[in-house]
Amino acid sequence: MTRTLITGGLVITAAEELTADVLIEDQRIVALASTGSEVAAGWRAERVIDASGKYVIPGGVDAHTHMELPFGGTKASDSFETGTRAAAWGGTTTIVDFAVQQVGDSLRAGLDSWHAKAEGNCAIDYAFHTIVSDVTDEVLKELDLLTESGESTSFKLFMAYPGVFYSDDGKILRAMQRCAGNGGLIMMHAENGIAIDVLVAQALAAGHTDPRYHGEVRRELLEAEATHRAIKLAQVAGAPLYVVHVSAASALAELATARDQGLPVFGETCPQYLFLSTDNLAEPDFEGAKYVCSTPLRPREHQAELWKGLRTDDLQVVSTDHCPFCFVGQKELGRGDFSKIPNGLPGVENRMDLLHQAVVEGRISRRRWIEIACAAPARMFGLYPRKGTIAPGADADVVIYDPTASQTLSAATHHMNVDYSAYEGRQVTGRVQTVLSRGTTVLQDGRWLGRAGHGGFLRRGTCQYLG
Ligand SMILES: NC(=O)NCCC(=O)O
Ligand SMILES: [Zn+2]
Ligand SMILES: [Zn+2]
């Protein structure tokens, strides 16, 4: 047995902050005691990490990533190896990626192919949601089996992307009805894709081909309408609902109304919607393509509403929707036709730092930072308290975070396999110093010690916000 002791840091969880020593045995946290207390003074360990002046926080849980996702004739540029390494550099120690069901195939086939991509390649632990592209009687049975076994207890459906991932309302309702009975959680990409495709064709016919039109045709109203419809369908089915990548204030208002009515409706937003805007999409010389994602970036005014939603718990989770495509050779596929720009932004390495910057700026508290980035995603997707907290019995996924270090985010220094940073040149205060993944030090004082294959697949429980 190897004992590790982290001494003297400010331990921050979603529930409390205390200056404490943390005792780890092999892969698990076994005890916490106030620094300087008699109990802590009696602890001995082979390895002692001095965290004085630093924060000791749970490793981040990023519940929305797309490593190697095939999209728009290309595939996301981070593999499970490069993407999970970058995640760890940024203080994230668990990702939940999306296994994709191809139309005509089973969910099983999609999961098998995602296991093959991830197994033996991840630096940190990982789990899978399943993207359901084809709701059939057989697939409905698979929703039961996968939820029961814990292999995948959450299922993403799309109201967008007709002809690719899109499900009509009938299919959505049937999947929701099934999850109402089996405990699975439906995740929704809420945009009216049928209407958007009409607007895309009209924009292109009018010669509007630049990246900024991506934001214009994916109208806020069409996110709000789809969010409203998804909530009503979930209500009819008696099922819980988790709306992914919420970007529009009016979509958030739909969630807030539903939650005020006591409905089991949850929402996620992403750093890009909190820190970037349509100004980025409008950057000249096709640079706006770097910021094409769906739902799209919105005008700056939406950011204050999203921050408010995070403070009031109308939004519970911040995930990255990390789906990187290089500018050269990938985003460029859409020169002359914005609809051919592969959708997605890099960010798995930046989330913890950007949210800490929000702490520095007084937008959220330190505990709320840990709640929305660690504890809530773990609870939402059945991983708590193994992940998302620092407590006896939890996996020793621990980050020593320097809250005073300053850094400049840049593609020149990041570890994601993508040739640009969506936050190029942005100064942030705070930096990950050391990262433990199940007790193993994968990053120490800016030195990479991790290895592909250390990360293991996580079976999950069901959503822990439901009775
Ligand atoms: N979000 C995005 O633009 N790309 C990834 C796929 C999705 O989450 O819809
Ligand atoms: Zn989506
Ligand atoms: Zn996504």
UniProtKB/TrEMBL annotation:
A cellular component term, taken from the record's GO annotations: cytosol
Modifications made to the protein after synthesis: Carbamylation allows a single lysine to coordinate two divalent metal cations.
InterPro entries xrefs: Amidohydro-rel, Hydantoinase/dihydroPyrase, Metal-dep_hydrolase_composite, Metal_Hydrolase, Metallo-dep_Hydrolases_sf
Enzyme class: hydrolase
Record bears the keyword Phosphoprotein: no
Residues annotated as domain Amidohydrolase-related: 55-442
Keyword Hydrolase recorded: yes
Keywords recorded for this protein, A-Z: Hydrolase, Metal-binding
Residue numbers of N6-carboxylysine PTMs: 156
Gene Ontology MF: a single term: dihydropyrimidinase activity
Cofactor(s), by name: Zn(2+)
Enzyme Commission code(s) on record: 3.5.2.2
Protein family membership: Belongs to the metallo-dependent hydrolases superfamily. Hydantoinase/dihydropyrimidinase family.
Name of the protein in question: Dihydropyrimidinase
Source organism of this protein record: Kitasatospora kifunensis (Streptomyces kifunensis)
